Amino acid sequence: MQSSRALESRIDVLVGEPIATINPDIYGHFVEHLGGVVYDGIWVGENSKIPNTNGIRTALVDAMRRIKPSVIRYPGGCFADSYNWRDGIGERSKRPRRTNFWVDAPESAVRGQNVPQNYEPNHFGTNEFMRFCQLTNGQAYLAANLRGLGAQDFYEWVEYCNSPAGTTTGADMRASGEVPSREPFKVQYWGVGNETWGCGGNLTPEEYAAEFRRFTAAVPRYGVPLKYIASGSNGEDLNWTRGFFARTREKGEGIFNNIYGWGLHHYAWNLSQGKTTDWLAGKRDALQFDAAEYYELLREGDRMESLINRHWTVMGEYDRQHRTKLVVDEWGAWYKPGTEIVPTHQFGQQSTMRDAVLAGLTLDTFHRHADKVVMSNVAQLINCLQALFLAHEDKFTVTPTYHVFEMYAAHQAAQAVRAEFIAPRATYTRNDKPADFWGLAGSASLKGKQLTLTVINADINQPREAEINVSGARINSANTRELAEQDVHAHNTFDNPRLVAPKDAQVAVTNGRLVHRFAPASVTRLQITLG
Question: In the prediction, which pLDDT does 235 show?
Answer without folding.
Answer: 87
